[in-house]
Design brief:
There is one protein chain. The two termini are 36 Å apart. The strands form 3 sheets. Strands 5-4-1-6-11-8-12-10-9 form a 9-stranded mixed β-sheet, sandwiched between helices. A two-stranded antiparallel ribbon has the order 2-3. A two-stranded antiparallel sheet has the order 7-13. It has a single domain, classed as Spore Coat Polysaccharide Biosynthesis Protein SpsA, Chain A. The longest helix has 15 residues. The chain is built from 10 helices and 13 strands. With 277 residues, the chain is α/β, with parallel strands linked by helices. Helix 5 crosses helix 8. Helices cover 31% and strands 25% of the residues. It binds uridine 5'-triphosphate. Uridine 5'-triphosphate binds next to helix 5.
Length: 277
């Protein structure tokens, strides 16, 4: 049984980079081949032993809720045909997991979206997956790798990091840290900078869309001011905890596709399609 029991999915954003596709269809419902991004994300949480899925969503995104409800008419129509197994994975998620939803009323940033989930999460540590970062790995999923590390550091938040090109650091939160004793992939974080220029960046280690957060984050988020764009950044809240030595950055094993960008989405589609051929 996992020590982390809940996963929060911030899915309220407008997905403007994918307009017009995302005018009526949530970005998280865009598929890589036949599976929507949100389903890959839920399956990754399940692979880490998590059964409680908390979606911070918006009133425009009912398709996500519908995806995780049974659809008896379609099931009847594919029964005893070659397509019968196509709903097996999503039906497994529906059977084994609880799904709860809360609406983010205003798009005030990722930190605000996570704060909105507090009423459903309560006081326990929890995972966060941004579904537009699609992660694959040969063995343990990225979130499972992170929950294993968290078990050794239960007072800390864990953020997943990846080495990116210098020319790309301005798209990410970037960390400054030192390797933990006897580790080659886990850093104690001293500093984090949101979207730095290549010159300002303390390293090329960028935070990607996987987190394990202690409930302390809610207390910090409550007092975290909005940035110059009016958004509450999770990086700013984590910085407060990093100053207390409570943030670990983990360089995961596996691959990440930034499916929130057209480039990454096409790359993921290509790689997944190649596996089928
Ligand atoms: P992004 O900035 O990548 O998503 O936020 P977006 O705003 O939907 O996409 P673009 O930039 O307009 O194309 C990262 C994640 O945080 C969520 C988004 O849904 C996405 O999963 N998010 C962001 C919220 O839930 N609420 C917010 O206020 C902001």
């Amino acid at each position: 049984m996992s020590i982390i029991k809940q996963c929060l999915f911030p899915v309220a954003g407008y997905g403007t980079r994918f307009l017009p596709a995302t005018k009526a269809i949530p970005k998280e419902m865009l598929p890589i081949l036949t599976k929507p991004l949100i389903q890959y994300a839920v399956e990754e949480a399940m692979s880490a032993g998590i059964c409680s899925m908390v979606m911070v969503t918006s009133k425009h995104k009912k398709a996500i809720e519908n995806h995780f409800k049974p659809h008896p008419e379609i099931e009847a129509s594919i029964q005893n045909t070659t397509k019968e197994s196509l709903l097996d994975e999503v039906n497994q998620a529906i059977e084994y997991c609880d799904f709860s939803y809360t609406e983010q009323q205003q798009m005030l940033g990722l930190g605000h979206a996570i704060y909105t989930g507090q009423a459903l999460i309560g006081n326990a540590p929890f995972a966060v997956i941004l579904p537009d970062d699609l992660c694959t790995s040969e063995s343990d999923s990225v979130l499972l790798q992170m929950t294993k590390l968290y078990q050794q550091h239960p007072d800390c938040c864990i953020v997943a990091i990846e080495a990116v090109l210098e020319s790309e650091v301005d798209k990410y939160g970037v960390i400054d840290g030192e390797l933990l004793p006897n580790s080659s992939n886990a850093y104690r974080v001293h500093n984090m900078v949101e979207k730095p220029t290549a010159v300002e960046a303390p390293s090329n280690l960028a935070i990607i869309g996987r987190y394990i957060l202690t409930s302390e984050i809610f207390t910090v988020l409550k007092d975290t001011p909005a940035d110059k764009n009016g958004e509450i950044q999770i990086t700013d809240a984590l910085m407060t905890l990093a100053k207390q030595g409570k943030v670990i950055a983990y360089q995961f094993q596996g691959k990440r596709f930034d499916c929130g960008s057209i480039n990454g989405f096409v790359k993921a589609t290509h790689v997944f399609a190649k596996k089928l051929l």
